[in-house]
Write a structure and sequence with these properties.
The complex is a heterodimer of chains A (363) and B (786). Chain A is an alpha+beta fold. Chain A is 40% helix and 20% strand. Classes of the chains: A alpha+beta (363), B alpha+beta (786).
Chain lengths: 363, 786
């Protein structure tokens, strides 16, 4: 048989092989020990050098051609087999995956983190104090003596009298006692915020007996109302992430500040929601009372053992729950304290949405 | 406080609009809470004349009126009032008008088959009085067709303003007017109190036996008065101020209080016996107050009494027995000065609020007793007639003028507003302050609130308005802002976000719980004396009750899986302890097509979460002691553990809650929980940011499995600890991966991870390590399975 005929016979057999075992039989018949191509290769040894020179290349070319064809066919058959296996292994990927539980951060915590971040940039540390307070820190030191009419406005929760002549302990009605504790603990300059739970004996759609406040306090030399105004504007612009914050400071009265100012912020109503921004007297806008503030009363500074002729500063207080509601659009304060998993999933924040200055304060 | 715009004109010369007034009030510190114009409620009502009145064919009591409305054809109106008659001029409500008394909109309708085009109104329907016996009868010359709002001068807006507790002087229109004048709304008209000389000696003795509580008690008698309804102007004035007219004598005292901020009292002289005196009450003495209630007094309280006993709780409320009635002929007027602190304490003790108390406890003008008495006398003489006695003045009010040394530079230094000296002086003058050339400032008698220079800064700046304060940036420290959070705050932030990252939703629940709930978790240390309700009485000693209640609410709403946590304080005898509590109940994994049935939460979910959270806050999780929990009734005794730094230092508890506890919260299934005691966590050692040096071993690690037979009460953790300790140089981890029990014995399989350091293990090395492992296990009673 001439080489060409042999080649075409083997190649036809390779081509015809439809499975790996038949292909292997073709390989053995051609390239095995007794194979037809192997026999030709062996015959080269018996040839004279001239003859080998003449026939050798053709025989080697045949072997190569056959090996290539076998390899090519093998990989084609293997690929087909894998494809068949994969097709058989196909899954309906529309079936549900195992649900990973999604946790969340409560809006109050998130907003407190936002405020801590904003005020850290302004150099304010976060201070804390007890919620079960004594009368002196909550009232007297803040220039609210026992006969002061402002006490009645505080709806205080009291604990029973100790019976030792000291005034009954109480639940702090505001975060202001932290001012006192901070001023008594160290020398100014002081820049702190003090967030936390506060309590008033009051309950309706917009009041709960427990809520959250954040107090700000700056004590230094040469601090005046202009600094207070700037600080409030700056913090609210950062918090609401708009430069269009207009404040209206109204003279008011708090025993622990003098002068005192209530602070209104301009807003507009949009789809039943209050959107903070704009001048409250502009068309479609109004003012809403947001926080109380003022220059720390000289008597308070004195009560803390500091010299009011040297040190002065400002303080402010604002409801954290209210800030959260205004920014994120909740409308019912009571839902904050219900622990309804649906509400928490909707209004809560992703665990990794930690407010940062570089990434933005709002989640 | 409410007042009509027109009432300002009594005290203020000048042209101003409603908007001027409200803007100025807000600017100077009197927050406007609302403005209402009574005229708006009278829209659609007009003066009309009845032309004819015919009997209704179908109803005896009804008449069919023809009414002249001033324009167009007369209207037919059906009317049931007995006084409706031809020629009467009254008030007609046209279709579309809203009846003030009941909010009903008038419509053209058929009454017993006769069309009625509106309604002739009674006083009560228009809320002008209580008269409902018939329709309003106006004078015959009242201009037919005129809007009734205009006819009745109703177009007088009522301003509702919040007076801050320091400004007693503005609890009368006069004080507000003085402030407005300072703010540029005209000139303040000084009070002109007529000088009324008595024509006879005061027939009753007046004295103060309690100079501390009542330093001054002025009085006089007016005899021969006629009490009854007060004049229309006074009634209208009081109604605008939100005060119901009662009788002329009472209305006169109320007017003095609301117009001038000066409470006074009128006694029926006929009901008094012996000298009228201010004195301390005796312990247990009872006062019958004019609100119909009786109050038990004590010796700290000042009363006004006569020989028969207590009449008034001084400065707070008059007595029921000595008040004026229509039969009163002779009255004793009382104008006293009560010490504010005493009034405040008495009011607080009795829980009794009144208009008088709110003024006296804030401190009325001690220099206004004579003026007040003169104004009241004049008013009563005008309204009720009679003849005034001489004045008796017992005691003397504290009228010494106080002074403050004021440095006008404080205005800029504290108030952040630069105001010229002239302007500052002018503002203080207009508010009644005396300002000397040396800036010694004399405080007016009515400004008890002024205490120091800061108050004067506020006076100047508020009258200009805080809008004029320019924002000034706080000085900023150079460089990047420094971190401010304390280690405890950083721990709280981390553990909170770690818990959320584990799939738990943060809740915030009440700090107070019920006594019963507190008792189930060990009892509370702090109970409120005046809780909102019994459910919110005890400061929580544990965060579990709040979360259990929340879980129950969620389950009742149909939730299948609850993962909640809270980070808050526990309130114990020794203080407030920051704590994180996780709660899980329901399905850990929902039933699924590949996993089969739902998997409920188990104690090891809790253990895993506890270890995760402890790891997140840097606690040495692998080194903690695993022990049982302390106490009973909170945890499942066999499915809970505590993780401790030392035998007494509990960092966390985890496991299944006691079913008796969870059932008390109406939760039927097993509930898992974790407590992390944040203030028990070890403080991080202060060190720089650099870590210990570390290079990953280059040699491949090896694992070997061992199976041991142990008694059934054997603690698996002990085996792991023994195995790990068998060869600390080579063994880097040991983990139980299989456990089964048979015939009272348990088989535990341990996977041991080995890390060669210098050279790979040969057979001999591995054998040596294995022998150590087996020997260590044997020492604690674990036998290698054959």
């Amino acid at each position: 048989m001439d080489l060409e005929a042999l080649a075409s016979e083997i190649l036809a057999a390779v081509d015809a092989a439809s499975a790996l075992d038949t292909l292997d039989a073709v390989r053995v018949a051609a390239l095995g020990k007794q194979g037809s191509v192997s026999a030709l290769l062996k015959s080269l040894g018996a040839m004279s050098p001239d003859e080998r020179q003449q026939k050798g290349p053709a025989i080697h070319a045949l072997r190569e051609q056959v090996s290539d064809a076998l390899a090519g066919k093998k990989s084609a058959l293997e690929a087909a087999a894998l494809n068949a296996q994969l097709a058989a292994d196909a899954l309906d990927m529309s079936l549900p995956a195992r649900a990973e539980p999604r946790g969340s951060i409560h809006p109050v915590s998130q907003v407190m983190d936002e405020l801590a971040e904003i005020f850290a940039d302004l150099g304010f540390a976060v201070a804390e104090g007890p919620e079960i307070e004594d009368d002196w820190h909550n009232f007297t030191a803040l220039n609210i003596p026992p006969t002061h009419p402002a006490r009645a406005m505080h709806d205080t929760f009291y604990f029973p009298d100790a019976g030792d002549g000291t005034p009954a302990k109480l639940l702090r009605t505001h975060t202001s006692p932290v001012q006192i504790r901070t001023m008594m603990a160290g020398e100014p300059p002081i820049r702190i915020i003090a967030p936390g739970r506060v309590y008033r004996c009051d309950s309706d759609a917009t009041h709960t007996p427990m809520f959250h406040q954040i107090e700000g306090l700056v004590i230094d030399k040469n601090i005046h109302m202009g600094h207070l105004k700037w600080t409030l504007e700056t913090f609210l612009k950062a918090f609401f992430e708009t430069d269009d914050i207009v404040l209206r400071l109204r003279p008011s009265y708090f025993p622990f500040t003098e002068p005192s100012a209530e602070v209104d912020v301009g807003y507009r109503q949009e789809k039943g929601r209050r959107i903070v921004g704009g001048h409250g007297d502009d068309a479609g806008h109004a003012w809403m009372e947001l926080l109380g503030s003022g220059m720390v009363n000289a008597r308070v500074i004195e009560n803390c053992g500091l010299d009011p002729n040297v040190w002065q500063g400002f303080a402010f207080g604002v409801g954290v729950d209210r800030l959260a509601m205004l920014k994120y659009g909740m409308d019912d304060l009571r839902a904050f304290f219900d622990g309804d998993v649906r509400w928490l999933a909707h209004y809560g924040f992703a665990p990794l949405a930690q407010p940062t200055l570089s990434g933005g304060i709002s989640a | 406080m409410k007042f009509a715009l027109s009432s300002l004109h009594q005290f203020l010369d000048g042209d101003f609009t409603l908007d001027d007034v409200t803007a100025a009030l807000n600017r100077i510190g009197h927050e406007v809470e609302g403005v209402e114009n009574p005229a708006e409620r009278l829209a659609g009502f007009r003066v009309a004349r009845v032309i004819s009145a015919e009997r209704h064919a179908e109803a005896d009591r009804l008449q069919v009126l023809s009414v002249d409305t001033g324009d167009g054809a007369p209207l037919q109106v059906v009317c049931g009032a007995p006084n409706a008659r031809a020629g009467l001029v009254g008030v007609l409500g046209l279709p579309g008008a809203i009846v003030p008394a009941n909010g009903m909109e008038l419509k053209t309708s058929a009454i017993r088959g006769v069309t009625s085009n509106g309604m002739m109104c009674s006083s009560r329907e228009l809320e002008l009085g209580d008269d409902h016996d018939g329709i309003i009868e106006l004078p015959a010359d009242a201009p037919v067709g005129m809007a009734f709002a205009d006819y009745s001068d109703a177009n007088d807006p009522i301003i509702d303003v919040a007076i801050t507790p320091n400004r007693q002087d503005c609890m009368g229109v006069m004080g507000i007017a003085r402030d407005l004048a300072a703010a540029g709304l005209g000139h303040f008209k000084p009070v002109s109190a007529p000088d009324i000389l008595g024509t006879f000696a005061c027939p009753i003795a007046i004295r103060t036996d309690d100079v501390a509580g009542c330093p001054a008690f002025y009085g006089r008698v007016i005899r021969g008065v006629r009490n009854g309804p007060s004049p229309a102007w006074l009634q209208k004035w009081l109604k605008a101020a939100g005060q119901r007219p009662i009788s002329a004598l009472v209305d006169c005292t109320n007017y003095l209080m609301l117009a001038y901020g000066r409470p006074a009292h009128a006694y029926d002289l006929g009901k008094l016996s012996g000298a009228v005196r201010a004195r301390r009450a005796t312990d247990g003495e009872i006062a019958q107050a004019l609100n119909g209630k009786s109050y038990m007094l004590d010796a700290s309280m000042t009363v006004i009494a006569d020989d028969a006993g207590v009449h008034d709780i001084a400065g707070i409320m008059g007595g029921e027995d000595s008040g004026c009635s229509d039969a009163t002929r002779d009255v004793l007027l009382e104008i006293a000065y009560f010490t504010p602190e005493n009034i405040a304490l008495t009011g607080q003790k009795l829980g009794l609020a009144s208009d008088a108390r709110s003024r006296f406890e804030r401190g009325v003008d001690p220099a206004f007793l004579d003026n007040g008495l003169a104004l009241l006398t004049d008013l009563i003489l005008n309204c009720c007639g009679g003849e005034a006695s001489e004045i008796v003045r017992a005691g003397s009010p504290p009228i010494a003028t106080r002074h403050i040394a004021y440095d006008p530079a404080r205005c800029a230094a504290l108030g952040g507003m630069t105001v010229t000296l002239e302007r500052q002086r002018a503002i203080l003058h207009s508010l009644g302050f005396g300002v000397g050339d040396d800036w010694q400032v004399a405080i007016p008698s009515w400004r008890r609130d002024i205490d120091g220079p800061a108050d004067l800064v506020e006076e100047v700046t508020r009258i200009i308005g805080f809008d004029a304060i320019a924002s000034v940036p706080l000085p900023r420290a150079p460089g990047v802002a420094k971190p401010t959070a304390t280690p405890a705050q950083i721990t709280e932030r981390r553990v909170r976000r770690a818990a959320a990252a584990l799939g738990f939703a943060e809740a915030v629940t009440w700090s107070f719980i019920s006594t019963a709930e507190a008792a189930r978790v060990g009892g509370g240390a702090h109970s409120l004396a005046n809780p909102m309700s019994e459910d919110l009485r005890v400061m929580r000693p544990s965060l579990l009750p709040g979360l259990l209640s929340a879980a129950a609410r969620n389950m009742h709403r149909g939730a299948a899986s609850i993962r909640l946590f809270e980070l808050g304080r526990r309130y114990l005898t020794d203080g407030e302890h920051p704590t994180l509590t996780l709660l899980m109940t329901g399905d850990a994994d929902a039933r699924s097509w590949d996993g089969g049935k739902a998997r409920a939460f188990g104690p090891f979910d809790a253990k895993a979460a506890a270890q995760s959270l402890l790891h997140a806050v840097g606690a040495p999780v692998d080194k903690l002691l695993l022990m049982g929990v302390d106490g009973e009734g909170i945890w499942h005794p066999g499915q809970s553990l505590s993780l401790r730094l030392g035998p007494k230092a509990i960092l966390a508890e985890a496991g299944a809650l006691h079913p008796a506890l969870t059932r008390a919260f109406d939760l039927s299934g097993p509930v898992m929980a974790v407590n992390i005691y944040l203030d028990a966590l070890p403080a991080k050692r202060a060190s720089g940011p650099a870590r210990d040096a570390f290079a990953p071993p280059t040699l491949q690690s090896v694992t070997r499995d061992f199976a041991f037979i142990v008694p059934h009460d054997f603690v698996a953790g002990d085996l792991v600890r023994a195995v790990r300790g068998a060869d600390k140089a080579n063994i880097v981890a040991a983990r139980i991966f299989d456990r089964f029990a048979k015939d009272g014995q348990t088989s535990l399989a341990v996977e041991v991870s080995l890390q060669p350091i210098d050279k790979s293990y040969d057979e001999a090395a591995l054998k040596a390590i294995s022998d150590k492992v087996v020997a260590a296990a044997a020492k604690i009673g674990a036998v290698l399975r054959g």
